[in-house]
C-alpha cells in the first residue's frame, strides 16, 4: 500500500468553480483556464484542494511563456496542501514549456506555502484607486464588477 495520503487528477473548470464558490474566502469563480487540477484524499476520494491555471491577467506579463495560478483553494483544516498543489502546478507548467509561473496573494497573507514551493516575492501591486464606485460596488472602467480591492503581492517561480 502506498504511503501517500493524496493524489492529483485533472478537473474541468466547472468542477473547480463549484469547489471555489463553496470554499474560497474572498475570490469568485473563473471564466476560463488553461488547465485545472484537484488534490483528492485517498481515504475517501473527496477534493481537498484545487488550482486553476491560465494566462496572466496582466497583459504586460502575457508573453506566452508565463502561466498564472489564477485560483488556489483548499480546505481550511488540511496541512501542506497549498505547497503540494503549487509544486505540482509548477511541474506541469515546466513540462508544458512555460518559463515561469506567477500568482498573487493579498498583501496581508505571509505566503509561507509559496516560499516553501520555490516562489519568490516579486513585488507589491498597489491597488488602483482609479476604479468607479456605483451603489457601493467597485466597478472597473469597462463597467464589470471588481473582485477584490486591496494591495496584492506578486509571486514568481522561474522554471528554466
In short:
The chain has helices spanning 13-23, 81-95, 112-116; strands spanning 6-11, 35-41, 47-54, 66-74, 100-106, 120-125, 132-134, 137-139, 152-158. The chain is α+β, with helices and mostly antiparallel strands. It has a seven-stranded mixed β-sheet with strand order 1-2-3-4-5-9-6, sandwiched between helices. A two-stranded antiparallel sheet has the order 7-8.
Give your account of this protein's structure.
The protein has 160 residues and is of the alpha+beta class. 19% of the residues lie in helices and 35% in strands. The protein has helices at 13-23, 81-95, 112-116; strands at 6-11, 35-41, 47-54, 66-74, 100-106, 120-125, 132-134, 137-139, 152-158. The chain is globular, with a radius of gyration of 16 Å. The N and C termini lie far apart (35 Å).
Q: What is the count of helical runs? A: 3
Low-confidence stretches: none
Order of helices and strands: EHEEEHEHEEEE
Q: What overall form do the CA principal axes indicate?
A: globular
* Quaternary organization: single chain
* Average pLDDT score: 85
Amino acid at each position: 500500500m502506498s504511503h501517500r495520503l493524496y493524489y492529483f487528477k485533472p478537473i474541468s473548470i466547472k468542477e473547480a468553480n463549484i469547489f471555489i464558490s463553496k470554499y474560497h474566502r474572498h475570490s469568485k469563480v473563473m471564466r476560463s483556464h488553461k488547465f485545472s487540477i484537484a488534490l483528492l484524499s485517498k481515504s475517501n476520494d473527496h477534493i481537498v484542494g484545487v488550482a486553476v491555471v491560465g494566462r496572466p491577467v496582466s497583459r504586460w506579463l502575457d508573453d506566452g511563456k508565463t502561466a498564472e495560478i489564477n485560483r488556489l483553494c483548499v480546505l481550511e483544516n488540511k496541512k501542506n496542501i497549498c505547497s503540494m498543489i503549487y509544486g505540482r502546478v509548477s511541474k506541469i507548467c515546466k513540462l508544458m514549456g512555460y518559463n515561469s509561473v506567477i500568482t498573487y496573494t493579498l498583501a496581508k497573507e505571509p505566503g509561507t506555502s509559496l516560499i516553501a514551493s520555490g516562489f519568490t516575492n516579486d513585488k507589491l501591486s498597489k491597488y488602483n484607486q482609479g476604479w468607479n464606485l456605483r451603489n457601493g460596488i467597485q466597478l472597473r472602467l469597462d463597467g464589470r464588477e471588481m473582485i477584490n480591492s486591496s494591495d496584492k503581492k506578486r509571486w514568481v517561480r522561474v522554471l528554466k
